[in-house]
Amino acid sequence: MSAFVRAGVIGHPIKHSKSPLIHNHWIAEHGLQGEYTAIDIAPENLKEGVQKLIDNGFAGFNVTVPHKQEIFKLCENVDGKAKTIGAVNTVVVKNGTLHGTNTDAFGFMQNVHQSAFGLDFVHRPSVVLGAGGAARAIVYGLIEAGARQIIVTNRTEEKAKEIAAMNPDIVSVVSWSAREKMLRDAGFLVNTTSLGMVGKDALEIDLALLPNDAVVSDIVYAPLETDLLLQAKARGNQIVTGIGMLLHQARPAFEKWFGVLPEVTEALEKKVLA
Ligand code: ATR
Fold first, then answer.
1. Are the CB atoms for 90 and 62 separated by under 8 Å?
2. Strand partners, 94
3. Could you tell which of 192, 193, 197, 203 is best to mutate to test the pocket of ligand 1, judged by most ligand atoms within 8 Å of the CB?
4. Are 64 and 77 in contact (CB under 8 A)?
5. Which residues approach ligand 1 with their CB closer than 6 A?
6. pLDDT tens-digit profile of 56-99?
7. Is 68 a catalytic residue?
8. What is the pLDDT of residue 1?
9. Mutation test of ligand 1: which of 68, 155, 177, 190 has the most ligand atoms closer than 8 Å to its C-beta?
10. DSSP 3-state assignment of 32?
11. Position 2 pLDDT exceeds 80
12. pTM, to two decimals
């Protein structure tokens, strides 16, 4: 009989996390013995909170806001990907020590590969709006997949420059006010900002210059079809919604703890969006 496997997600706050829904769906789908729970740990209790998980025999856990950087200090080792992205979102417990990685770049690229037909981010420039943690993972994923030109634009230009430092030959920075001009030759446009999300400000961008065969993606998934995606769709651009990144980034984490690489199905997507 196989052992009961415990995993979860740590964050603060954490009650709105969709991760338990996703992982418990896969546990049931594969008939595994295990449970994935959401664990609220306040920043000042991170060390003790994580030790409790180790003591309780957790196989590992996901890490979300605000712990994605602080967790570095508690890890025995962090892989190169997580170091370059600057955030750990997945931890595996091995012999009582923590091993950190990041699955966001994988999640983004898998989703794009599965949802966009004929996307060319190798020969044509990609334009990335925003320069937060998600942008770093996405730029990392694009570079790893062979992108030759990525333009990052962000309200706070300094943060875009920090991302460009990842690979200055590939990544360049333009000012936020020039974002529309950059669309002229783009093959791929990605919004990584929180603009356009329910309750947040609108993302102001006119897609008039964007080629009609460019793909437009948004990591915001509430609403699923953001104003950016609706505008893109109306002018004939292919769109990729944000829910897929959330679902796909969970797959390699699940595999590390439960030993099975699960699939993203329509049933799972429906459940998470319900
Ligand atoms: P995440 O880690 O999820 O990417 P984040 O680090 O808070 O979240 O980044 C949010 C992104 O949305 C940033 O690029 C942010 O721009 P700043 O770096 O200038 O803060 C962007 N953003 C949020 N509100 C914005 C607004 N009103 N106008 C323009 N950009 C905004």
1. yes
2. 97
3. 193
4. no
5. 130-135, 154-156, 159, 192-195, 201
6. 999 999 999 999 999 999 999 999 999 999 999 999 999 999 99
7. yes
8. 53
9. 155
10. coil
11. no
12. 0.95
